[in-house]
Design a protein that fits this description.
The complex is a heterodimer of chains A (about 625) and B (about 120). Chain A contains 20 helices and 13 strands. Chain A has helices at about 1-5, 10-20, 25, 30-60, 65-75, 75-90, 90-110, 120-130, 135-155, 170-215, 235-240, 260-270, 330-380, 380-385, 390-420, 435-450, 470-485, 520, 545-555, 580-595; strands at about 220, 230, 275-285, 295-310, 320-330, 430, 455-460, 465-470, 495-500, 505-510, 560-565, 570-575, 610. In chain A, helix 7 packs parallel to helix 9 (about 135-155), helix 13 runs antiparallel to helix 15 and helix 16 packs parallel to helix 17. In chain B, about 45% of the residues lie in helices and about 20% in strands. Chain B is globular and about 35 Å long. Classes of the chains: A alpha+beta (about 625), B alpha/beta (about 120). The interface of A and B includes residues 377, 378, 532 and 539 of A.
């Protein structure tokens, strides 16, 4: 097209003039506009030639006959037709009028110049031929009828043999030659249109290819049975297999089993034209790197389907229509939504756990407070209660005990929340473990003695210095020993041992106490949780000691493991890295992230009677 | 004849508190720290009133109350919940569980005695 434009650059003014004549309704369609232009060009040419010939003919023939005047005037009708088409844009009608006018002219001249043997007879062919430019079947048929009628009229009006001499040879040649030239011009115009049509088609195909190749959305066409008859190349990006491998029912074979019924429903809904169906489903995609035995990989795909009238096919009203679907990868959106949902659930869970923790704290504070307030109120009503001196002493002791328990609970809660909120400041320094263990043992030995329990410690002689928070380690040891004393009967024994093991130290506190029932092991370390047997004792322990131990050890990047056998004893093993500085930062972050989950996670892979943190 | 009160309470100090209070005011007491035992004791002694802690080691006081109220014979015995569960909604939850009265810990001695007197029909 561009080439032909360059070639015709010398005709630019004429071209511009022709363009200006094209009716607005034809301007958007380049091919139709070209047809209009061709119509204008031929009619203008014929009209102008007729105008030019008119004076020459007059000069040559002298005074013309009436028929000659009419014929010459008639040759001006093409100019009227140009005006008509330019005004109305009625291309077919203009052609029809043109054919009629040509037929009349040919008929008129033919009638006086020998009928069917006249020199204008070849122009009858042109009448029909010209309509081929219009590319309208109806028009071509009409013009053929007009041409035949014209021929019949000439043949009937003037019998062929009688008039044969009236036509001189030169006029026969001129008539045939002009008709042939005109017909040749028509053929050229036709081939130009065909070329223009081909170029336009190629252009639109190229445009489509560009669209199909660069669009990530996939377009598919489903046949009457739902089988895919066409799918755009973008399908390869979506599924990892060539689009041709998805034809027929092979796309359906990749739809997630759980989504298949919905998929079929959507297609059939669309086919019945109920609604433009929309569905999100999972589609199996070929992994980029082939891994054997790996779980199939799925992408979330959004599908929008709607029915189409299939081309020229006739359709019964109740038969399903063809369906066109657009597929789009919505995995990213889906995973975002899932992440948000997960975060929301997590936040809700955290909030629940927090409320539960608060309720437990309230409960644990009110219980000792009840004894404190109750007994002190009774002391205040000495007379009413008929209290003797021994009773009063007893109550005062109970109030004090409860107060101390309350203090222990409050301290424990503060330690716990500091650890869990990541505010427990661990200040590491290198120190020797042995003196610290010794001082703890001395500190606890009085209590052990009172309970009738023997307390031993055994620290390996070649133990290296450890980089940790000595204050925290002291609390760990004291809490563990204190627990052991609480849950060991008179005559029992408690061992504290420390040994180095590769790059960590192993602190073990073992007792010969009552042990922990298997079902309680998992819950050890939950704030305020105490094994069932502890209910037999009064106010011993807050149920926070082990939680604090687990929290502190975790902050050091270490681990806690508990083994216990009912009525045989309990063994708690604490492992700390020699350099706790390293594990600290990560552990701190974990503690923040997990708050207010239970301070220690049970390692489910461990046997049931063991617990690790 | 002295009225009998069954105390269901797992905390030893609180048990002593309730026992001493009730005893000083002329009540007879039966004590248990275990919910299942409480049901047997109620059947055996037909107490005039039950003081019920809610957080108990094996079955909760609410569960025990439910069993009591389902029992034709024991249904009429008033149950006074005395509990450290004192968060919003706890009282409603416990009253809905069938307890006739609800007292939160820490108790007020006079309120406690008043409630006991009211339900034991002294």
């Amino acid at each position: 097209m561009r080439r032909s434009k360059l070639r015709s650059s010398s005709f630019t003014p004429i071209r511009a003039y022709l363009d200006a004549l094209v009716h607005a309704s034809a301007r958007h369609d380049s091919l139709l506009a070209a047809r209009h232009r061709a119509f204008f060009a031929t009619r203008l040419f014929v009209g102008l030639v007729a105008l030019a010939i008119f004076p020459i003919y007059l000069a040559w023939r002298g005074v013309p006959t009436a028929v000659e005047v009419i014929a010459l005037c008639w040759t001006l009708t093409p100019l009227l037709l140009v005006w008509y088409l330019s005004k109305t844009g009625e291309y077919e009608r203009a052609h029809l009028l043109s054919a009629c006018s040509l037929a009349l002219l040919v008929g008129m001249i033919g009638a006086v110049t020998g009928g069917i043997a006249s020199f204008v007879a070849p122009w009858i062919v042109v009448i029909a031929l010209e309509a081929s430019l219009s590319a309208s079947r109806r028009l071509i048929v009409s013009t053929i009828v007009i041409a035949l009628l014209t021929a019949a009229t000439l043949w009937l009006a003037v019998p062929y043999p009688s008039s044969i001499d009236s036509a001189p040879a030169w006029s026969m040649i001129a008539g045939a030659a002009s008709a042939a030239i005109y017909a040749g011009g028509l053929a050229l115009a036709n081939s130009a249109f065909a070329r223009a049509g081909q170029v336009a088609k190629e252009l639109s195909e190229a445009r489509y290819r560009l669209l199909a190749q660069n669009m990530s959305d996939v377009i598919a066409r489903h046949g009457r049975d739902g089988a895919i008859t066409f799918i755009s190349p973008a399908a390869e990006q979506l599924t990892g297999v060539p689009a041709s491998d998805l034809l027929g029912h092979r796309l359906f074979d990749r739809v997630h089993l759980a989504d298949r019924p919905a998929f079929l429903t959507a297609i059939s809904d669309a086919a019945r034209g109920v609604i433009p169906a929309s569905l999100e489903f999972r589609l199996q995609r070929e992994p980029r790197v082939a891994m054997h035995r790996s779980a199939p990989e799925f992408v979330w795909v959004e599908m929008r389907s709607h029915a189409i009238e299939a081309g020229n096919e006739r359709r019964e009203d109740d038969s399903p229509r063809q369906v066109v679907s657009v597929f789009r990868d919505v995995s990213a959106r889906k995973s975002d939504a899932l992440a948000i949902e997960h975060a929301r659930a997590e936040a809700e869970r955290a909030n629940d756990a927090k409320s539960k923790f608060l309720a437990t704290v309230s409960h644990e504070l009110r219980t000792p407070l009840n004894a404190i307030i109750g007994f002190s109120e009774m002391l205040g009503r000495e007379d009413e209660m008929k209290l003797d001196a021994a009773r009063r002493q007893d109550y005062a002791r109970l109030i004090r005990d409860s107060g101390e328990h309350l203090l222990a609970v409050v301290n424990g809660i503060l330690d716990m929340s500091r650890i869990e909120a990541g505010h427990f400041e661990i200040v590491t320094e290198p120190f020797a473990v042995k003196p610290l263990i010794e001082s703890c043992r001395k500190m606890m030995s009085l209590r052990a003695e009172q309970a009738g329990i023997q307390l031993f410690s055994d620290v390996a002689v070649n133990l290296p210095e450890i980089n940790a928070d000595p204050r925290a380690l002291r609390q760990v040891v004291i809490n563990l020993v204190s627990n052991a004393i609480k849950f060991t009967e008179q005559g029992g024994k408690i061992d504290i041992s420390v040994a180095a093991n590769l790059d960590e130290i192993e602190l073990i506190v073992s007792d010969t106490g009552i042990g922990i029932p298997e079902e309680d092991i998992d819950r050890l370390g939950d704030p305020f949780f105490q094994g069932r047997s502890s209910y037999d004792r009064t106010y011993e322990g807050t149920g926070l000691g082990l939680s604090v131990v687990m929290g502190l050890v975790k902050l050091h990047g270490g681990s806690v493991e508990i083994e216990s056998r009912l009525r045989k004893g309990t063994k708690v093993t604490v492992r700390l890295p020699l350099d706790c500085q390293k594990g600290m930062k990560a552990a701190l972050n974990n503690a923040i992230a997990e708050f207010p989950r239970r301070p220690a996670q049970v390692d489910r892979d461990e046997p049931k009677v063991r617990k690790s943190a | 004849m002295a009225k009998t009160v069954l105390i269901v309470e797992d905390n030893e100090l609180n048990m002593k508190l309730f026992h001493d209070l009730l005893e000083a005011h002329g009540y007879q007491t039966i004590e248990t720290r275990n919910g299942i035992e409480a049901l047997d004791l109620a059947r055996k002694h037909k107490p005039d009133l039950i003081i019920m802690d809610i957080q108990l080691p094996e079955v909760s006081g609410l569960e025990v109350t439910k069993w009591l109220k389902e029992d034709e014979e024991l249904r009429s015995i008033p149950v006074v919940a005395v509990t450290a569960f004192a968060m919003k909604g706890d009282e409603e939850r416990i009253r809905e569980g069938g307890c006739e009265a609800y007292l939160s810990k820490p108790i007020s001695v006079s309120k406690f005695l008043e409630t006991v007197r009211h339900f034991a029909k002294d």
